[in-house]
Request: fold
Amino acid sequence: MNIRCFSLLVVLTILLLVSSSASAVLDYKDKEIVSADTVIDDDLLIYGDNVDIRGTVLGDVMAFGESVRISGNVTGDVMACGGKVTISGIVGDDVRIGAIEVVIEGNVGDDVFVGATTVEVSEEAYIGGDMVFGSGRMDVWGEVAGNIEGRAGDVILAGPVGGNVELEVGNINVLSTARINGTIEYTSPRKVTIPPSTVIQEVSFTRQEPTGIFNIPETISIFIGWLIRFVYLLIIALLVLVLLPDHVEAVARNIPENPILNLAMGFALVVIGFVGSVVFMVTVIGIPIGLILLFATLFALYAARLYFGLWLGRLIFSRLGKESKPWMDMVLGVLVLFILTSLPWVGGLIYLVVTFMVIGVIFSTMRGSAKA
Reply:
């Protein structure tokens, strides 16, 4: 079983375990999640097959699902991941989205950050800040008050832009309905004709020899695969934080203590886990124990990062002098750590060091709790 299949199995198992005891803040129901007459005076963490926030959230929203729609009013930030994400309501602050398909047809008060296969900003949409994106295709029909910056295979600009446009594209098409108040700087394999009345300032073109990167399906597949792995890890992290808050907090607090000793202990425990599972599975009677031990070892190798993520996110927020909540610490820390462990060459080493050290911390924390 590869690590992606294993992580999916873990996610599905946890979702099944918590679905019957879901609360208003953490829900898993294949129906309308937040009704139009509901007001939530707090941050909202929500997931499900089809998430639809039709009510009002007086705080931030984190939403995960096959389909995610924000059709109500969110006063804070929105972070959403899913197959298709639609923003048709009002978001007071920033929007961060990772999805296969993204549609923005509502009002966003500040910046939008998007990573997706296709992105559409409809004619009815308004984005009050900048728009930063990476996608296969990007269509901007609505208004962006700030700058537009990104990279895509194909881009259509058809609406008003308050600032500058800076793009790296396979092809760009600026329609006569567009009006860019700043400059357009684009890098592309070929120069295109831009209607002169659509750009207030200058147009800058840099020729790039075609590399095929925009037309190779594998490129998008690699990005989507990276995004899916991150979403899996983040969902597990947030669910464990909700289900076992005291345990996660205890482990995170102990991470700075005796890092070298915990690193060595974690490595030894992983070796014992794999060797022990093989020894047990040699005999028929020991197969169940061996499978449990193997599953526990694999899960520890996969999920150790979430404990470190909570500690790392909290450290970053404290150094920035910002107040935060545990789920905010977890999201930021897991994201930073996931990026670091994805780096070539050093990423694997970072992953091993963090994983072994946290496994040692988990063992030390559990042993200390048992003695107490």
